[in-house]
Amino acid sequence: MSHKSYLEHAEAAIAERRWESAYVFLEDGFVTENVANRERALALVKAYPQILAGGVATFSVARVVRMIEANGLVAGPRQELKRLEMYRVVATPEAAMQAEQNIAEAFAQVKKARDLEEFRKSQELARIEREKAEELARMEKARAEEVTRRAITARDREALALRMAKAIPMAKVSCKDSLECGKTFALTQIYILEHSKMKIQSANDTIIETYSPNDPHAIGARATKTPRSGTTALVSLDVYCGKPKTEADVYICMYSAVDVYEGFAPFIQRMLIK
Asked: Which of 139, 185, 218, 238 is the most core-located residue (most Cβ within 10 A)?
């Protein structure tokens, strides 16, 4: 929109006694390089003192708050300070100082409200995470109690040891070429992430390894890709827990680990078919 258009809109607002709108339309004219338009804008302000009253209203704290909320904590204050420089051309020093103070107060109000909103969001997220952790702890405790109960008899221990002995050699997958081996190893990393509480410590073309667990019930994992004849390779999975503190910890770990061992090859084969 040209400066001429600003002036035409301002004159229409003056005719309708919309003084705040008249000021807003005129403010660009106070600093324009077009001398004729600048003199015309200043003449209208001189002829209609109500326009300056409208200008004061545009710098009220409530209005500046709305503008900052609409334009953001960076662009909003920048825009209002730019308007302030235009306002200084026609305002008294006292009125300009008050407008500047209002901008600062409005910025502080909006920032405080935003900070409070972010704090409440963070508190809510913390509460959700805390409840998840508490629920997980309850589930782990229930599982530990169940496993301890099941591991009481020698027969249970023997059956678990036999199952583990069969599962470990089965946690291997062969791949025939670089494409299939790449997919297999990528799926292996996904499988580890889904079944281990530990984050990945290192991952490259031949080894994927989590951080070592410090919890006797937490599963850590290590996968290796070993080249074989031609373009074939063998991907092997090894899982382990943190250092056990009680005999029950040993069996809790074994019950978790055997499930991970047994599920590895079927998972890879199933995903490769998709």
From this structure: 185
What is residue 252's predicted lDDT score, i.e. its pLDDT?
86
pTM higher than 0.70, yes or no?
no
What are residue 236's DSSP bridge partners? 172, 224
Task: Please state, in angstroms and as integers, the Cα–Cα distance from residue 19 to each residue in 25, 53, 56, 193, following that order.
Answer: 10, 7, 10, 65
As a whole number of angstroms, the distance between CA 17 and CA 50 comes to: 9
Q: Which residues contact 132 (CB under 8 A, 6 or more apart)?
A: none
Between the two ends of the chain, the Cα-to-Cα distance in Å is 59
DSSP string covering the chain: --HHHHHHHHHHHHHTT-HHHHHHHHGGGGT-S-HHHHHHHHHHHHH-THHHHHHHHHTSHHHHHHHHHHH-TTHHHHHHHHHHHHHHTTS-HHHHHHHHHHHHHHHHHHHHHHHHHHHHHHHHHHHHHHHHHHHHHHHHHHHHHHHHHHTSSHHHHHHHHHHHHHHHHHSEEEE-SHHHHHHHHHHHHHHHHHH-SSPEEEE-SSEEEEPPPSSTT-EEEEEEEEE-STT-EEEEEEEEESPPSSHHHHHHHHHHHHHHHHHHHHHHHHHHH-
Give the residues of the chain that fall short of pLDDT 70.
Answer: 1-4, 146-154, 274
Residue-level pLDDT at 152 = 55
Across 128-149, b (16+ Cβ under 10 Å) vs e yields eeeeeeeeeeeeeeeebeebee
Residue 149, pLDDT score: 62
* Pairing mode of beta strands 207-210, 172-175: unpaired
